[in-house]
Write a structure and sequence with these properties.
Number of strands: 2
Largest sheet: 2 strands, antiparallel
Strand order of the largest sheet: 1-2
Radius of gyration: 19 Å
Number of helices: 3
Structural class: mainly alpha
Strand content: 5-15%
Oligomer: single chain
Order of helices and strands: HHHEE
């Protein structure tokens, strides 16, 4: 049993202990299984692409690059063939890290 798992068992209700391993760091880095909704979304003919607002992120360029590389490594994201884009933001977390939303 991992040290983090022992620590988690002290914090989590006993009836939930059978799922503790799901939330560990190692489990969080496995490649998710393919789901029905992981397939291409075809855009209808006549769809007009919309431009989102552009936010300057040059000060976060290195963090963005590291985040994308890490998520590609884990298999959480892949290159998109979609011509439509959407803005993303980094939100600060209590531990000092940033979460992309």
């Amino acid at each position: 049993m991992a040290k983090s798992e022992v620590k988690a068992k002290k914090l989590v209700l006993e009836r939930l202990h059978k799922w503790i391993q799901v939330f560990g760091k190692k489990a969080s880095e496995r490649i998710p299984t393919k789901k029905l909704w992981n397939y291409v979304i075809d855009i209808r003919k006549g769809f007009m692409l919309r431009k989102g607002k552009v936010y300057p992120l040059s000060s976060l360029r290195e963090e963005i690059y590291e985040f994308i590389i890490e998520q590609l490594r884990k298999g959480y994201i892949r290159s998109s063939k979609s011509p439509q884009i959407a803005p993303v933001f980094f939100v600060g977390k209590k531990d000092g890290k940033k979460k992309m939303v």
